[in-house]
Specification:
Layout: H1 8-19, H2 25-30, H3 37-41, E1 44-45, E2 53-54, H4 71-105, H5 117-126, H6 136-152, H7 166-174, H8 182-192, H9 201-231, E3 237-241, E4 250-257, H10 260-270, H11 273-281, E5 286-292, H12 293-303, E6 307-309, H13 314-319, E7 325-328, H14 337-340, E8 347-350, E9 361-362, H15 370-384, E10 400-404, H16 408-416, H17 424-432, E11 437-441, H18 453-464, E12 467-472, H19 473-481, H20 487-490, H21 496-505, E13 510-514, H22 519-532, E14 544-548, H23 554-565, E15 569-572, H24 582-596, E16 600-601, H25 606-624, H26 640-651
Parallel strand pairs: 4-5, 4-7, 5-6, 7-8, 8-9, 11-12, 11-14, 12-13, 14-15, 15-16
Antiparallel strand pairs: 1-2, 3-10
Length: 652
C-alpha cells in the first residue's frame, strides 16, 4: 500500500479503511485497470451517437471516426471541450462571488460585510467606476455589476486582460485569442466541438486557448479580487496542516469544495460563544472547523482555520471516525464520500443546487439566510458528536506548522520592507544570481500518481537549485503537510542563495497564494516583476515557469493553457491525452513557443521534470544576460560549468 502515497497520515487511514472494509478512491482507481488505451491517448470520440469511435494511432485499425474526423481533430476537440468545462467551473465561481458582493452591497446578504474597501477602490478605478462619492456600498454594487457584465460581454476585450504587459496583449490580438467575454468564449468552443463542426486541430487549439484566457484573465481574476474585497485580503498567518488537526474531543466539522461564501460563515458561527457552549454541553471540549481542497485554502488564508488534507484525502478524513460532518459546496467532491460516511457517523451535507449527491443531507445555500443556515449546520454537527463510535476513532498524529496568506500586494511589503514596498529585491535576487527564478506549483492529486510524491520531489529539486516556489490549491495542501510552508523547516531543502533571501526577508521558500482560482495571483505577481524592470518587458522573457505535477481535472487543462498562452512554460503530468496525435503533441511541446513564448513539458519523473524546468530558467537567464548563479546546488552536485561559474563569481 505504501506505493500509493508518501504521506504517513494518508497511509495510516488507507490501512484503517481496509480493516474497516471501506472502499476509497485508491481502491476504485485500481479497479479501473486495464484502462482504455485509446482514451489514454486521446483518440476516443463520443461526440455523437455514431460513436464511441476509436482511431488507431499505429495505423493498423480505423484512421477516421464514423464522420471522417482524424486523430488530430479528435485529440484537439477533446482538449477544447475539457478547457471549456474547466473554464466554466472557475468562471461560474467568479460569477457567484460577484453576486454575493452585490447582495452584500444591497444589505440582503445576512452576516456579510465588505472587509477590504481599499482594494474595492482600486478595482473600481480599474473598472472605470466613479469612486468620488466614497459610498462603499454604492461602489461595491457598481463593481459587482461591471464584473458580472464581463461574463456576458459580446465584443471588445476583457477589462482585466488589460493588466497584461503590452507585448502580451499584442501577441493575443495578432493570434485573435484576446477574450471578449467569459461566457462568449466558452459557448463558442462548445459549439465548435459539436459533431459536424470544427475538425482543424490548430484552429481548435486556438479557440481552446481563448477560452482558457477568459478563465485566467477573467473569471478567476474576478473571483480572486472580489473574494478579497468581500472577505478581506489575506495576510500571512500561522496554522497547521494534515489529519492531526482533528480533535479527539472536539466537534470536528470539515468544509470541502471551492467557494468561500458559506464556509466563511460556518467558521464565524462555530467560533461564537453560543456554539462553543452548546458543544461543551454535549460533552465536547471545543469545535474544530478544518478544510479539504480549496475551500480549505480560503478559510486558511483569511481565518487561519487548519487544513485537514488535499483532494485524495477527503474520504480518508471520514475514515478517522472523528468527523461529525463534511459540508461541501462545489467542485472536486467525490460522490464516494456518501458511500464511506455510513460506515462511521459522519453526516455529508451538500449546499449547492449545482452539486447534490445521493445520500447527503441538503441545505440550500442562500445569501439572505447565510448565518441561519450556518447555525443550523453547526448545531446539527454538534448534535451528532454523541453518535461518534469511539472504538472506530483513529486520528493520525501527523500535522505540520505552516505560514499562509501571501498575495501579490502583501509580497511587496515582505520583499521590500514596510516602508519601501517593492518587487525589486525579488528581481535583484534573480539579476545578481542568488535566485534562479520562480515556479508556480499548483493542482490536485491523481490516483495514477503516488499521492503527494510528484509535488514533494519536484519542489525539493527546485529549492535545491535556488528556485523560489509559489503554490496554490491542493499542491499547497501537500507542501504544507510536508513542512515546506514552514520558514524554519523549509530552509533545509534550500540552496544557499534562496536560503539567504528567505532568512533576510523572513519568508518560507514556498509561498502559499491561495486556492485554485488564485492562480491569477501568480499572473499578477509576474506582471509586477515586469513592471519592476531588469528581467524583461514581457511575461515570456521572465525566468519563471508553472507546474501541475499531479493534474486531475478539466480545470487543470484550462489553467495550464492560459498560463502557457501568457508566456509561461508549463510542466503538466499526467499529460494531456494528446499522444495519439503527433501534430497536437508537437504543437504543444514545441511549436506553441513561436506563437506564445511558452510550451508544455509532459514528464512523469519529478526530478527530471524539475531539471527541464531549471534548464528553461537558465535559458531565460542567459537571454537576459543575468549574472551566473552565485552558489552551486545545495548537495554539492557540481559539474565543471557550475564550478567555473562559481570561481568567476568569487573572483569578481
Amino acid at each position: 500500500m505504501k506505493e500509493k502515497s508518501i504521506d504517513k497520515a494518508t497511509l495510516q487511514m488507507m490501512e484503517k479503511a481496509k480493516c474497516d472494509n471501506v472502499c476509497t478512491a485508491f481502491d476504485r482507481a485500481a479497479q479501473q485497470e486495464p484502462r482504455c488505451g485509446f482514451g489514454e491517448l486521446g483518440v476516443c470520440c463520443q461526440q455523437c451517437y455514431m460513436g464511441p469511435c476509436r482511431v488507431d494511432p499505429l495505423g493498423k485499425g480505423a484512421q477516421y471516426g464514423a464522420c471522417g474526423i482524424d486523430a488530430d481533430g479528435i485529440v484537439a476537440r477533446n482538449i477544447a471541450r475539457n478547457t471549456a468545462i474547466g473554464a466554466s467551473a472557475h468562471s461560474d465561481h467568479g460569477r457567484d462571488v460577484a453576486h454575493n458582493l452585490y447582495m452584500t452591497s444591497q444589505g440582503k446578504a445576512q452576516g456579510y460585510e465588505i472587509k477590504d474597501p481599499v482594494k474595492l477602490m482600486y478595482v473600481a478605478e480599474e473598472l472605470s467606476v466613479d469612486t468620488s462619492s466614497g459610498d462603499v456600498k454604492k461602489i461595491a454594487a457598481e463593481v459587482a455589476h461591471k464584473c458580472m457584465a464581463e461574463f456576458g460581454k459580446q465584443e471588445g476585450e476583457l477589462i482585466m486582460a488589460q493588466r497584461a504587459p503590452e507585448k502580451q496583449k499584442e501577441r493575443w490580438r495578432k493570434l485573435k485569442v484576446m477574450p471578449r467575454g467569459v461566457d462568449r468564449e466558452i459557448v463558442e468552443v462548445l459549439h465548435m466541438v459539436h459533431m459536424g463542426m470544427d475538425a482543424d486541430y490548430r484552429n481548435l487549439l486556438m479557440f481552446a486557448i481563448k477560452a482558457g484566457l477568459s478563465d485566467g484573465w477573467g473569471g478567476s481574476m474576478i473571483a480572486t479580487d472580489l473574494t478579497d474585497i468581500q472577505f478581506g485580503s489575506p495576510n500571512p498567518l500561522r496554522s497547521k496542516a494534515n489529519l492531526g488537526v482533528l480533535g479527539e474531543n472536539t466537534v470536528n466539522i470539515l468544509v470541502h469544495g471551492h467557494e468561500p461564501t458559506l464556509s466563511e460563515m460556518i467558521v464565524k458561527v462555530a467560533r461564537t460563544p453560543e456554539m462553543k457552549a452548546l458543544a461543551k454541553k454535549k460533552g465536547a471540549e471545543d469545535i474544530t472547523v478544518a478544510g479539504i481542497c480549496c475551500t480549505a485554502n480560503e478559510i486558511l488564508m483569511r481565518q487561519g482555520a487548519p487544513l485537514a488534507g488535499n483532494y485524495l484525502m477527503q474520504e480518508l478524513a471520514i475514515v478517522t471516525g472523528a468527523v461529525e460532518s463534511m459540508v461541501v459546496d462545489v467542485q472536486c467532491i467525490m460522490p464516494g464520500i456518501t458511500q464511506v460516511a455510513p460506515c462511521y457517523h459522519t453526516k455529508i451535507i451538500t449546499t449547492s443546487k449545482k452539486a447534490r449527491i445521493p445520500g447527503a443531507v441538503h441545505y440550500q445555500f442562500e445569501e439572505e439566510r447565510a448565518v441561519d443556515i450556518a447555525r443550523q449546520i453547526v448545531t446539527e454537527s454538534i448534535e451528532n458528536y454523541s453518535n461518534r463510535k469511539r472504538d472506530r476513532v483513529q486520528i493520525p498524529k501527523e500535522s505540520s506548522d505552516l505560514i499562509a496568506g501571501f498575495t501579490t500586494e502583501n509580497v511587496f511589503y515582505h520583499l521590500g520592507g514596510k516602508f519601501r514596498p517593492s518587487f525589486k529585491p525579488l528581481n535583484e535576487g534573480m539579476i545578481q544570481g542568488r535566485l534562479r527564478g520562480v515556479v508556480g506549483v499548483v493542482g490536485c492529486n491523481n490516483t495514477k500518481v503516488v499521492h503527494d510524491y510528484n509535488h514533494v520531489n519536484f519542489v525539493k529539486e527546485l529549492l535545491k537549485h535556488d528556485v523560489l516556489v509559489v503554490t496554490t490549491g491542493c499542491s499547497a495542501g501537500c507542501l504544507a503537510k510536508h513542512g515546506f510552508l514552514d520558514p524554519e523547516g523549509g530552509l533545509q531543502y534550500c540552496g544557499n542563495g534562496l536560503k539567504e533571501i528567505c532568512v533576510a526577508v523572513g519568508i518560507p521558500p514556498v509561498l502559499h497564494l491561495g486556492s485554485c482560482v488564485d492562480n491569477s495571483r501568480i499572473l499578477t505577481a509576474c506582471i509586477e516583476m515586469v513592471k519592476e524592470g531588469g528581467i524583461g518587458t514581457d511575461l515570456s522573457q521572465l525566468p519563471v515557469a508553472g507546474s501541475a505535477p499531479e493534474a486531475m481535472s478539466s480545470k487543470a487543462t484550462s489553467i495550464a493553457l492560459y498560463v502557457a498562452a501568457s508566456g509561461i512554460a508549463v510542466h503538466f503530468y499526467p499529460p494531456f491525452q494528446v499522444h495519439g496525435s503527433k501534430k497536437v503533441t508537437e504543437y504543444l511541446t514545441s511549436e506553441m513557443e513561436k506563437d506564445f513564448g511558452a510550451y508544455f513539458i509532459f514528464e512523469g519523473d519529478p526530478k527530471k521534470a524539475a531539471q527541464k524546468i531549471i534548464a528553461h530558467l537558465d535559458k531565460k537567464r542567459e537571454a537576459l544576460k543575468l549574472k551566473p548563479m552565485m552558489y552551486p546546488p545545495l548537495n554539492g552536485e557540481t559539474d565543471k560549468k557550475a564550478a567555473e561559474k562559481q570561481a568567476a563569481v568569487s573572483k569578481s
